[in-house]
């Protein structure tokens, strides 16, 4: 099954209702917002509603691993390098907090892109077609979320690596990093710096000993 078809099925399963009727309602709403240039209070209200409707869909996709899997599939079709660590997948399945962190980042970027595309005339329209014909506005938007997941995941993963490094430095242990599944990616900066400091101290001591020997011989 294609990525687009899976997105449509996922959205329809959550929202329910008649597909064609939903597209008609979406078209009327976009036409109304276009009159205001997709700005102002009316568009802000629309964004809040879009966020609330997309939130449970994305959280479910993160918990099941669907969002990451579809993003990997899309990237592979484009020849883009992308990898999601197995431990991160497990964490996203088990941790509501971590799912919220990524979801908020994904939604923020997707909503910016969505508005930009609408204002440039390149966004969703009622005759926007996918593998199974016209899709609803929400199916289109979730598709945008799949596209931006790659960047959101990389930001989230890097932040976790930085946290693990700091934890290792202050607690002198990598237990937390190992529990997070990213211990192998982290080496405490203090370890490397202490080695450099030790080497400098050793060289300085050797020079001082040589100087003392020269003075005693003189």
Characterise this structure.
The protein has 218 residues and is an all-alpha fold. Helix content is 78%, strand content 2%. The chain has helices spanning 3-15, 19-34, 40-64, 66-78, 86-94, 96-119, 137-171, 175-179, 189-217; strands at 129-130, 133-134. α1 crosses α7 (137-171) and α6 (96-119) crosses α7 (137-171). The longest helix is centred in the last third of the chain and has 35 residues, at 137-171. The termini are far apart.
Give the structure's gist in a few sentences.
This protein has 218 residues and is mainly α.
What shape does the CA trace take?
elongated
Characterize the largest beta sheet: strand count, sense, and whether it forms a barrel. 2 strands, antiparallel
Give the assembly state of these chains.
Answer: single chain
Give the number of DSSP strands: 2
Count, helices: 9
Strand content: under 5%
Biggest sheet: strand arrangement? 1-2
Rg, Cα atoms, Å: 26 Å
Helix content: over 70%
> What integer is the average pLDDT?
78
Order of helices and strands: HHHHHHEEHHH
Distance between the termini: 87 Å
Category from helices, strands and their pairing: mainly alpha
Give unreliable regions as ranges.
180-195
Ordered list of secondary-structure elements with their pairings:
Elements: H1 3-15, H2 19-34, H3 40-64, H4 66-78, H5 86-94, H6 96-119, E1 129-130, E2 133-134, H7 137-171, H8 175-179, H9 189-217
Antiparallel strand pairs: 1-2
Helix pairs in contact: 1-3, 1-7, 3-6, 3-7, 4-7, 6-7
């Amino acid at each position: 099954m294609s990525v687009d078809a899976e997105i449509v099925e996922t959205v329809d399963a959550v929202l329910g209702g008649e597909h064609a009727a939903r597209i008609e309602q979406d078209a009327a709403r976009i036409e109304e917002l276009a009159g205001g240039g997709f700005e102002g209070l009316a568009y802000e209200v629309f964004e809040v509603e879009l966020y609330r409707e997309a939130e449970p869909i994305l959280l479910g996709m993160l918990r099941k691993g669907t969002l990451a899997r579809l993003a990997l599939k899309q990237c592979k079709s484009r020849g883009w390098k992308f990898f999601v660590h197995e431990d991160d997948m497990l964490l996203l399945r088990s941790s509501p907090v971590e799912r919220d962190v990524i979801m908020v980042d994904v939604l923020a970027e997707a909503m910016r892109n969505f508005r930009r595309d609408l204002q440039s005339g390149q966004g969703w329209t009622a005759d926007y077609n996918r593998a199974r014909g016209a899709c609803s506005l929400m199916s289109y938007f979730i598709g945008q979320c799949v596209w931006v997941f790659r960047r959101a995941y990389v930001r989230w993963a890097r932040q976790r690596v930085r946290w693990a490094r700091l934890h290792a430095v202050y607690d002198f242990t990598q237990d937390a990093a190992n529990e997070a599944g990213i211990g192998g990616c982290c080496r405490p900066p203090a370890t490397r710096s202490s080695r450099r400091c030790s080497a400098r101290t050793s060289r300085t001591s050797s020079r001082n000993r040589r100087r003392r020997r020269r003075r005693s011989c003189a």
